[in-house]
Design a protein that fits this description.
- The complex is a heterodimer of chains A (120) and B (108).
- Chain A has 120 residues and is mainly β.
- Chain A is 0% helix and 48% strand.
- In chain A, the strands form two sheets. In chain A, strands 2, 4, 5, 6, 9, 10 and 11 form a seven-stranded mixed β-sheet that branches. In chain A, strands 1-3-8-7 form a four-stranded antiparallel β-sheet, with no helix packed on it.
- In chain A, strand 7 and strand 8 form a beta hairpin.
- By secondary structure, chain B is mainly β.
- In chain B, the strands form two sheets. In chain B, strands 2, 4, 5, 8, 9 and 10 form a six-stranded mixed β-sheet that branches.
- At the A-B interface, strand 5 and strand 10 of A face strand 4, strand 8 and strand 9 of B.
Chain lengths: 120, 108
């Protein structure tokens, strides 16, 4: 059974940094592209970042490009999101989501999410 | 940036058919995916590649497309189907994706 577990969320001041982790199990992690998707409380879903299978290609939403970095460790079956220069509008639940590997970017399995709150 | 448009809410009585639509310019060329999100829970994939249903998703969930519109149909909606539903797709170049704004389905 596919299992994705996020961690690392919490309260951080504007301008601060936070590193999220996602532990994957139940599938061959290195064979799948991965993503981060976020959801501000009471709002809709927003795709944040993508990484390919070997970590050599990444892509970001315009809203986070230059501030967030997605990475992965296939030996540890883990996905990461380094978030710098955080803003109040980055407050959200952050989900890691597996890409099923079809013709376009998409998501089939999601973690339960970790809450990031950016506030002074 | 690419945009997908959904109606904010749909309401049906139990046993009726609920139809949730999603419009986007690239939908004739790109697949639509549908996600169900119940209150306080993570999203769950209910339809992929326009019409396919993942294992474990009830047969009452189906997907279709016509031109620039994708439709999620719940035939014989049940109270447990109450949730927010989001469509997802990408632009024609495949470089930019978007979720629709979400549709809240009420079954009562």
């Amino acid at each position: 059974e596919v299992h994705l577990v996020e961690s690392g969320g919490g309260l951080v001041q504007p301008g601060g940094s936070l590193r999220l982790s996602c532990a994957a199990s139940g599938f061959t992690f290195s064979s799948f592209e991965m993503n981060w998707v976020r959801q501000a409380p009471g709002k809709g879903l927003e795709w944040v970042a993508y990484i390919n299978r070997d970590g050599s290609k990444m892509n970001y939403a315009d809203s986070v490009r230059g501030r967030f970095t997605i990475s992965r460790d296939n030996a540890e079956n883990s996905l990461y999101l380094q978030m710098n220069s955080l803003r109040p509008e980055d407050t959200a639940f952050y989900y890691c989501a597996r890409d099923p590997g079809g013709q376009q970017l998409a998501f089939d399995y999601w973690g339960q999410g970790t809450l990031v709150t950016v506030s002074s | 940036s690419y945009e997908l448009t959904q109606a904010p809410s749909v309401s049906v009585s139990p046993g009726q058919t609920a139809r949730i639509t999603c419009s986007g310019d690239a939908l004739p060329k790109k697949y639509a995916y549908w996600y169900q999100q119940k209150s306080g829970q993570a999203p769950v994939l209910v339809i992929y590649e326009d019409t396919k249903r993942p294992s474990g998703i009830p047969e009452r969930f189906s997907g279709s497309t016509s031109g620039t519109m994708a439709t999620l149909t719940i035939s014989g909606a049940q109270v447990e189907d109450e949730a927010d539903y989001y469509c997802w797709s990408t632009d024609s170049g495949g470089n930019h994706g978007a979720f629709g704004g979400g549709t809240t389905l009420t079954v009562l």
